Each structure stands twice: as structure tokens, then as C-alpha cells.
Amino acid sequence: MKIKLEEKVLSENDKIANQNRDLFKEKNLYVINIISSPGAGKTSILEKFLYKLSPDITAYVLIGDVQTENDARRIQDAGYDARQIITGGACHLNAQMIGKNVESIDLERLDMLIIENVGNLVCPAAYDLGEDDKIVVLSVTEGEDKPIKYPAIFNKATLMLLHKVDLLPHLKFDKKKAIDYALAVNAQLKVIETSCVTGEGFDELFQWVRSNINMKKARKHKV
Ligand SMILES: Nc1nc2c(ncn2[C@@H]2O[C@H](COP(=O)(O)OP(=O)(O)OP(=O)(O)O)[C@@H](O)[C@H]2O)c(=O)[nH]1
Ligand SMILES: [Mg+2]
């Protein structure tokens, strides 16, 4: 009975996610969904990344958290467009929350929509939001075995940011093992090592995003 209900919820979510995807395609908008465990560094990455994007690329950030507007405020204080979605208990964002929130955003003027999901490696993997790419952030403070403990999100992601690498000299974290585990789960996964402290990896991340935006625009013009 529980499984039946869960299947129904997920198939309803998929239907709305496809509507979101059609809308994003029509508006020529590249959309990413950033997922990690709590505190891995999603908002910090965005603060640094948005600085790199602007003014060439116009982005809007939607941020999911169980409580508080702290993260949206951090992005707004840095001078960028952001809106908080408070789930009030849910451990993930769903497609309906995204669809409802984008109704009042002028998507025409944007190149990119960035979604920071609720800090959790399990539930967000099951909920398609209509995004083009899922990005998983694995911080080196979390242990190298996370990709094999929580394979679903590493399997569905296109890009893994191995984050906080500035801390590596102070930890026993085995970087090669972490990357090998992630690639064992998803051989296609691209990996970029990042640090908000040293700035490592942000040029490569920017190039990766820019080429995806360009590819999406080119695909639209072909249709
Ligand atoms: N050493 C180091 N610390 C970092 C780095 N990036 C983020 N942090 C720290 O990690 C902590 C959590 O960062 P957040 O950006 O709030 O993480 P988050 O994933 O958005 O957290 P939630 O939204 O609560 O899940 C903060 O204390 C940051 O200063 C990094 O590259 N290196
Ligand atoms: Mg955050």
C-alpha cells in the first residue's frame, strides 16, 4: 500500500516535472539542480559562482530549505536574484514547488535557473524537477564512501563537485578512492575539484556551465 502511494506521488511529480521541462525549453533556459548533504557547501559555491557568471550570464536562484530564509538572504545580500522555498518539513523540493515559483519570475530575461535543493543525499534524487542537469556536491569532510552508500544521486548526476579540497591536508580523506567509487556508480560522471577558500575549480565549473547554456540555446534554434 505504502509503495503504491509512493509510486503515485512520484509519477504525479514526473508529470509536472515534464511540464516544467517544456516551459524551460520554450524559454531557452538552462536549469541545474544542486544536491548534497547538509553543509557540504552548496550556498557558498553559489555565492562564488554567481560572481563569476555576472554580468555575462543572467541567473535566478531558487533555494529549498526545511526552515529559514538564510540562504536566499545570503545570495540576495551578494547582489543576485534569489527566492527561498521553505518546505516546512519535507526533505526535498518537488516539481510542483518549482512550477509554482517560476510562474511569477520573468524567465524571458534569464539564461539560467539554479536550484539549490534541501540538504539531503537521498530524497532529492527521487524527485525530478524538470532540470537539465543534477550536480552533486561531495565535501571531503563527509568520507569517501558516500557515492556507494547513496548511489542514486551519484548515478543521476552529470557533474560531481568534490568540494572543500583546501581541507585535504588536514584530513585522512582518500581522494582517489572517493572518485573511483563515484565513477564505479556512474562512469559518465564529470568530476571537478573545488574550494571556496582557494578558488580552485571555479574556472572549469564556469566553462562547463557556459558550454551547457550554449548547447541548450543551439538545440532550441535547430528545432
Ligand atoms: N574549508 C572550506 N569550508 C567551506 C567551503 N565551502 C563552504 N565551506 C563552509 O562550509 C559550511 C557550510 O556551507 P554552506 O554553503 O552553508 O553549505 P550548504 O550546503 O549550502 O548548507 P545547507 O544549505 O544547510 O545544506 C560553511 O561554514 C562554509 O563556510 C570550502 O571550499 N572550504
Ligand atoms: Mg545552503
TrEMBL record:
It comes from the Bacteria. Belongs to the SIMIBI class G3E GTPase family. HypB/HupM subfamily. This is Hydrogenase accessory protein HypB. Transmembrane segments: none annotated. One of its GO terms (biological process) is protein maturation. InterPro entries: CobW/HypB/UreG_nucleotide-bd (IPR003495), Hyd_mat_HypB (IPR004392), P-loop_NTPase (IPR027417). It holds the Pfam family cobW. Residues 31-192 form the CobW/HypB/UreG nucleotide-binding domain. GO terms for molecular function: GTP binding; GTPase activity; nickel cation binding; zinc ion binding. Keywords: GTP-binding, Hydrolase, Metal-binding, Nickel, Nucleotide-binding, Zinc. It comes from Candidatus Fischerbacteria bacterium RBG_13_37_8.
